[in-house]
Amino acid sequence: MTEPTTEPAGRATGRTLLVVLFDGVQSLDVTGPVEVFEGARRACGDRSAYRIRTASLDGSPVRTSSGLTLVPDAGLAGEPAPHTLLVPGGEGTRRPDPRLVDWLRDRAPAAGRLVSVCTGALLLAEAGLLDGRRATTHWAVCDHLAGTYPKVRVEPDPIFVRDGRLSTSAGVTAGIDLALALVEEDLGREVALTVARHLVVFLRRPGNQSQFSAQLAAQTARREPLRSVQHWVTQHPEADLCVESLAARAGLSPRHFARAFQAETGTTPGRYVERVRLEHARRLLEDTADGVTKISRACGYGTTEAMRRAFVKALGVAPAEYRRRFRGPVRPAR
User: Fold this and answer.
1) Could you give the maximum distance between any two Cα atoms of the chain, in Å?
2) Do the beta carbons of residue 205 and residue 331 sit within 8 Å?
3) Is the peptide bond before 206 cis (omega within 30 degrees of 0)?
4) CA 165 to chain CA mean position, Å
5) Which of 87, 128, 251, 299 is the most exposed, having the fewest neighbouring CB atoms within 10 Å of its CB?
6) Structural domains in the chain?
7) Which residues pair with 69 in a beta bridge?
8) What local confidence, expressed as pLDDT, does residue 203 receive?
9) Over the stretch 46-97, which tens digit does the pLDDT of each residue have?
10) What count of Cα atoms within 13 Å lies in the side-chain half-sphere of residue 169?
11) 143-172: buried (b, 16+ CB within 10 Å) or exposed (e) per residue?
């Protein structure tokens, strides 16, 4: 893949965005990023900031996995190498047209920037474009990607992964997060923030944020009282959530509780509590003006240092830096 010279942030230079279309594509994988880049054209005041084009193999309309019909601008054969080549996902990536894979293998390396959304990573992998590279995809497909293409360094947790000029994202809405990150790189933070506000999303999710919320990462326990304990933890992250306290709430011995909790949820009580507290702290940093000290206490960390260690371990940034980079519109401090 070529490595073009980095362009100064905020300077529009007519970057071409080419979106690959195929039967069975997921419509949101296409329209989500396209709305971000189109919004950036308007926000920066230069309609030539991005030249957005869509193309299918022969230029024919395609039917999305939800039944919508998309009409491309052209056929892929006649398209020059773009600044950014975006490959969306969808059911059509499971048994791809060999002609599309051949086109990607031959032509994608000439793109200045190669991007996949969701299972679009499967198309890139089939074309050999992910060999030796770090990549992600929808959480439900990560094992398949890793097992089928062992040369790919699959990272199942992040919502998007950037490896040089290659960027891959997790499922559906994560493509919007990645597109916002690319706009910020191209045109600056203010343009990206304007687009995020217009789309009523926060410019806040770092690529290494987990695809899973605490409740999604852990299965819901099948039976009481474990299910009630899970719910109570999410409502009281500031409480004493040691195994002994949770076991007492469940009316079980600590040993029995820990064993039953992991068997039914797929994670340990301690790991579940860590995820809940981190998730709650992120929301407070993103959505409120509360100080880090107050937030650390509200989330059960006790000290700002304990919260800092948890953030660095899970997200690679300290709480203050996380807030600076990813906070959206805030509510007044309580």
Assistant:
1) 69
2) no
3) no
4) 17
5) 251
6) 15-198 (3.40.50.880), 214-326 (1.10.10.60)
7) 63
8) 54
9) 878 999 999 999 999 999 999 999 999 999 999 999 999 999 999 999 999 9
10) 28
11) ebbbeebeebebbbbbbbbbeebbbbbbbb
Among candidate residues 44, 118, 142, 299, the one labeled active-site is 118
pLDDT tops 70 at residue 136: yes
Query: In 3-state terms, what secondary structure has residue 184?
Result: helix
pTM (predicted TM-score): 0.66
8 Å CB contact between 237 and 280: yes
| Upper half-sphere CA count for residue 208 (Cβ side, 13 Å) | 10
The string of DSSP codes covering 110-153 is: GSSEEEE-TTHHHHHHHTTTTTTSEE---GGGHHHHHHH-TTSE
3-state secondary structure (DSSP) of residue 62: strand
Q: Can you tell me whether residue 180 is helix, strand or coil? A: helix
Percent of the chain residues topping a pLDDT of 70: 87
Which range has the worst mean pLDDT, 1-5, 38-42, 130-134, 212-216?
A: 1-5
Contact at 8 Å (CB) between 57 and 17?
A: no
- Answer whether the bond into residue 61 is a cis peptide, omega within 30°: no
Q: Identify residue 144 by its one-letter amino acid code.
A: H
User: Which residue type sits at 108?
Assistant: A
Residue 299 catalytic?
no
The separation between CA 330 and the C-alpha centre of its own chain, rounded to angstroms, equals: 22
